[in-house]
Amino acid sequence: MTRLFQTNELRKVTLLDGMWDFTPIDTNDMNLGQLSYAYKLAVPGCWEMHPELLTYRGSGAYRKRVTIKEKTSLRFVFKGVSHTAKVYFDGKLIIEHYNAYTAFDAIVDEAEAGEHELIVLADNSFGEFSALHIPNDYYTYGGINRSVSMEELKSLFIERIAFTPVWENGGWRGIVQAYVRNIGVEEQVYRLSFELGGKLMDLGEGRAAAGSISVSEATFDFSEAEAWSPENPVLYMLKARLLADDADVDDLIERVGFRAVTTKDGKIQLNGQDIVFKGVNRHEDHPMVGSAIPLQLMAVDADLITDMGCNSVRTSHYPNDELFLDLCDERGILVWEENHARGLSLEQMRNPNFRWQCEQVNREMVEQHFNHPSIVIWAILNECASDTAEGREMYKEQLEQIRALDASRPLTFASHHRAKELCFDLADIVSFNLYPGWYGDEDPGELCDLARGWADASGGLGKPMIMSEFGGDGYYGHRDPSRVRGTEERQADIIEANLSAYTSRPFVSGMFIWQYCDCRVTEGTDWLLTRAGTQNSKGIVDRYRRPKLAYTAVQRYFKGEAKQN
Ligand code: ADA
Q1: What's the 538 CA to ligand 1 centre distance in angstroms?
Q2: What is the pTM for the complete model shown?
Q3: Which of 212, 424, 426, 431 is deepest in the core (most CB within 10 A)?
Q4: What CATH number is attached to the domain comprising 43?
């Protein structure tokens, strides 16, 4: 399943999820034709779920046979392969892609009718070629971890639609941009029309040169539209139709919402009203499925998050499966989505692959998730070297890149550099990862006041402020009246003290608890050795989603039942 709604009525889309043949491979000694596939693995899935591959790090080949009835062009859409993919169609390489957390596609021009072989090589190993997937405080699983689909296309099709709602002079307008791709060998003339909420719109005629993408854009008035908000998450289907020579060629359906996000006077506004994020940081992780979270489990996560009283989620530390974003759209859960990077030192940011891998994940994240009304913040580079002049140049470049792709959402990054932070002036919102009560014995309220001062003194004056991470370890089931470190009691105390401080400070525009659920981490050396059980145990629920004592503390504050001080 790729989305929570039907994306096409005309274009034929076949979901390729199911059981695929699989074999681990040695990349240095590989002949595709001679592979034998000893395993059958579920797609989506992570190979670590197989009893013989529990800690396998390396490469693997997945195989699936597909049949098409008549000669047609094909587009394979991979929502996520972890972390480097090479895709072969009938033995020919058709695409390579890096990063587990964004989608990519591959076109096969004019495939003959009959049976074809699709092979996906997935590699989750670490090394210099991978600047963003490194040994870390979450787990880089291996495999095809999100859905795969096959689309049958003519030589002209709608690649994507970008919809931007605009609130102006007391009414809604919408900017519609359609990207039409011509994979043929001749220029093609087309006509585009749209339908939204019973209103028909004509984008007029366009021309796409051979092998190019042409963009048609228009602004329409939707004064009757109802606003999207957490209380009333109204969604509209936006149906695009592509015609050539007066005949239907292709279609694409998107789901959009009308809402505006702004920052003013040190606060964040949704549709003009100040909002405060009451949220959690969430990793895509579960002991039985790895990072390939199925819809049922996403719904459980969304239910628990809402039950705790949260109104928001931070997709730490990578773009999420779009199905989860669809759920957030439907339920009115506000989303801070961020690119993929956690805790990179300046030396790691100097990796020659860092720049293009970030540029790519930023572009894919924004373009692919542009239409989700739930996403209200884009963020980059969690806890990287934003305290250095060289790091600052990289932050600047990436924030500028995202702003050029989407000027409608505020930008931020989560910093742990306290008074040494050098990049607050580059963002719209200042965000702090601080762990009072866990990594130090500071008082959360005093530290939060200090943080406001650090922000004000270094480019963040007048900008809204978010406490983007705080919390402490609590090992599920480890209860003890002594309330010592690691007990559920101590974790609940830490969460309580932090929430009490932040919910009572009017200059705090949001708080995201670290973290929603416990998660597996890389079995490593150095600081990773501090992770008992090879997991980060700061979840409010454990890896199986069983609530810890802190759960009710969160409810008290986020549901507004607790006394503030
Ligand atoms: C950091 C980081 C998280 C997690 C957390 C912790 O702030 O952003 O990914 O590692 O610390 O548990 O220490």
Answers
A1: 9
A2: 0.98
A3: 431
A4: 2.60.120.260
